[in-house]
Write a structure and sequence with these properties.
The complex is a heterodimer of chains A (112) and B (115).
Chain A: E1 3-6, E2 11-14, E3 19-21, E4 23-26, E5 32-38, E6 45-50, E7 56-59, E8 62-65, E9 75-77, E10 86-93, E11 100-102, E12 106-111
Chain B: E1 5-7, E2 10-13, E3 19-24, E4 31-37, E5 44-50, E6 65-69, E7 75-79, E8 88-95, E9 104-106, E10 110-114
Parallel strand pairs in B: 2-10
Antiparallel strand pairs in B: 1-3, 3-7, 4-5, 4-8, 6-7, 8-9, 8-10
The chains are: A mainly beta (112), B mainly beta (115).
C-alpha cells in the first residue's frame, strides 16, 4: 500500500544550523510528493512539492529532492531561523485517485 | 470562493449533543478531505470525497461520525452523541485532484470542545 514515514520529533536545533527532516515513502508508480508546514496557531500550507523523479522542490530556503531509487523526499535547509519553528508534514498523492497520504509530522524547534 | 471556508471556527457543545461542521471548498475542486488534529498532533484522516466516486470512509472512528457532500461542493461532517474524546480541531481540505495538480488547500479548521 501507500505510506509515508517521517523522522520523529521534536527536532531541536540552534539558529543557523543545518536542517534535515527525513521522509521516505512506499507507493505504486510515481506519486507526487509534498512538504506542508503548520506554523504555531496557523493553518496547514504547502511548503514545496515535486511531481517526478529527480525533481527538486524549493521554497523559503527549504529544498527537497524526489529520489526514486531511495524512495525518499528529505527536507533540507542550510541555515534555519527561529521563525522556521513549526510542524512539518510529508505527503504523497496516490496515483490511483490522487488521495493524499500523510506522514505523522515532525515538530521543529529552533532556539536562538 | 478564494479559499476553503469552514464554519463555525469554534464550537463548544455538551457531551451527548450532536454537532454539524461545515466545509465550503474552493470552487471547482473535486476532491475534499476531512481530518482531525488533536493538540497540534498529526493529521488523522477521516474521509475523502472525489468527484462522483464512492467516498473513502475508512478513517471515520465510529458510527457516530458521518459526512455528506451535496452537489459535489459543500460538505457537512456530523458527530452524533458527542464524547469528550471528540474534542479536537477538525480540518477540511480541497484539491482539484488532477494528475498534474494534486495540492490540497486547507481551511482554518473548526475547534470542537465537548464539555
Amino acid at each position: 500500500g501507500n505510506s509515508v514515514t517521517q523522522m520523529e520529533g521534536p527536532v531541536t536545533l540552534s539558529e543557523e544550523a543545518f536542517l534535515t527532516i527525513n521522509c521516505t515513502y512506499t507507493a505504486t508508480g510515481y506519486p507526487s510528493l509534498f512538504w506542508y508546514v503548520q506554523y504555531p496557531g496557523e493553518g496547514l500550507q504547502l511548503l514545496l512539492k515535486a511531481t517526478k523523479a529527480d525533481d527538486k522542490g524549493s521554497n523559503k530556503g527549504f529544498e527537497a529532492t524526489y529520489r526514486k531509487e531511495t524512495t525518499s523526499f528529505h527536507l533540507e535547509k542550510g541555515s534555519v531561523q527561529v521563525s522556521d519553528s513549526a510542524v512539518y508534514f510529508c505527503a504523497l498523492s496516490k496515483i490511483s485517485n490522487y488521495q493524499l497520504i500523510w506522514g505523522a509530522g515532525t515538530k521543529l524547534i529552533i532556539k536562538p | 470562493g478564494a479559499g476553503v471556508s469552514q464554519s463555525p471556527s469554534n464550537k463548544v457543545t455538551e457531551k451527548g449533543k450532536d454537532v454539524e461542521l461545515r466545509c465550503d471548498p474552493i470552487s471547482g475542486h473535486t476532491a475534499l478531505y476531512w481530518y482531525r488534529q488533536s493538540l497540534g498532533q498529526g493529521l488523522e484522516f477521516l474521509i475523502y470525497f472525489q468527484g462522483n466516486s464512492a467516498p473513502d470512509k475508512s478513517g471515520l472512528p465510529s458510527d457516530r461520525f458521518s459526512a455528506e457532500r451535496t452537489g459535489g461542493s459543500v460538505s457537512t461532517l456530523t458527530i452524533q452523541r458527542t464524547q469528550q474524546e471528540d474534542s479536537a480541531v477538525y480540518l477540511c481540505a480541497s484539491s482539484s485532484a488532477r494528475q498534474w495538480d494534486t495540492e490540497a488547500f486547507f481551511g482554518q479548521g473548526t475547534r470542537l470542545t465537548v464539555v
